[in-house]
Amino acid sequence: MSVASDKRYMGRIELVELLKSRGMIIDDDEAAHHALTHIGFHRLRAYWIPLVDDPSTKRFRPRTTFGDVLRLYEFDRRLRILFVEAIEAIEISFRATMSREYARSHQPNGYVSEAGASNRERWTSAMNQLKAELGKVTAAAHGGRADNQVSELPPIWTTFEMLSFGSLSYWFSHVLPPEVRQRVARCYHVHQEVLTSWLHHLSVVRNIVAHHGRLWNRRALFLPKIPKRHDLQKSLAPGSVGLYNTCVILQYLLDQIQPDNSWRDRLYNLICSYEVDHTLLGFPDDWRNRDIWRCAFAFDPLSRSKREGV
User: Fold this and answer.
1) Does some domain include residue 3?
2) Which domain holds residue 40?
3) Among 3, 83, 109, 187, whose CB has the most other CB atoms within 10 angstroms?
4) In three state form, how does the secondary structure of 216-257 look?
5) What distance in Å separates the CA atoms of residue 265 and residue 280, rounded to the nearest whole number?
6) What pLDDT digit, counting tens, does each position of 142-171 carry?
7) Same domain for 48 and 171?
8) How far apart are CA 53 and CA 303, in angstroms?
9) Contacts of 199 (CB under 8 A, 6+ apart)
């Protein structure tokens, strides 16, 4: 049986006094009241937990200020903006690549038949979900109620534009024929098993970002696969559960999609300007000296087997 929380409501003035009683320095009560009103105690709490000196008493480290907390929050907000920009470019590229490579060998409407699917049971599940989504789109366009009985399915490029990134990742890993997955993966110079893992990982990260979730000091919910025989291996950090490998993957894919991007420099400048502890992002001490952060990746077309190693 569920047990109700024993937490009681506290107003913003009382919350400020509570933080002060735990040793947090607050020079401007009004600014703190404003932040607690429009950001919220619970959201900000995630940023001051690492600043607590004694978890049993919830006392803060000496000289911890409310400004320190707001600075971490602002850093995280700006980091999310960088992630949104990178994931947007990757998601759009992936939609276009998937639809092109599928239509090239299976025709624009080949997906409506289970004959070409890699897994018939999951194809059925994916089609039912697709029809439900199409029904919602149709209902919204005509001001009616959602209807799963869609009479005509659009070509693959229209379908893939309407799916969520999570659904797109599902189609790639469970529905598309293996030869199509392989061609799509080659467009990004990685093995299809690696790309499958990356897409699932990025779909989870995208949901966190889309809901304004915290990236700073967060453990990955799903760890991306590390390629064993790939030029990128020296830049990745096997075993890292923070954001570092996510950033490497974003930068690597951006280098394929937008070779002249400035994402690596803006990430570096953001971390330096806010003077955040890079270890709380899961970054190794030598991260800036690793290949991916020094220059964009350029590929030798003759070394495909090495690049696409699992």
Assistant:
1) no
2) 12-64
3) 83
4) CCCCCCCCCCCCCCCHHHHCCCCCCCCCHHHHHHHHHHHHHH
5) 20
6) 555 555 554 578 888 888 888 889 989 988
7) no
8) 51
9) 94, 168, 169, 172, 173
